[in-house]
Input
Amino acid sequence: MNPIPALIIIGGAGFLLAKLVKAGGAGSLNMVFGSVDVSCSGFLCTSPIFQLNLLVQNPGNTEVVIKSLAGNVYVNGKYSGDVSFFNNLPIKANTETPFPVQVRASAISLITQAIEMIQGKEGIKAEVRLIGNVNVEGVLVPVDLIYKII
Output
């Protein structure tokens, strides 16, 4: 009997286990909204750019690296823009680290949503929701954050 296939399977399992142990903090990371900044580009602000200043809290004893974040932003349940971040961001153990990400939004959708909020009976209220995935040390972790403006 040839032991090579068994060794390959055991080696692969060991590699995956080592990867999961290294990324062990991935499951315990907390991500929260800090603030939102707005800037414009294009004629009459046709390409608004929002910077979501997220905070990542690592209560674990191991530093982890966020490799990427990709997702969508919704305002009051309607699609408003895309979020992407493709740089390595180290999150030291037992710390809170700022995590700035940009949202590229459509000016027309934002104007439509602003008109709907102004015409609403409850005043100007908004729920900003970020839904996506963050890659922490090669492990994809779902993100679902809500920021309410009242």
In short: The radius of gyration is 20 Å.
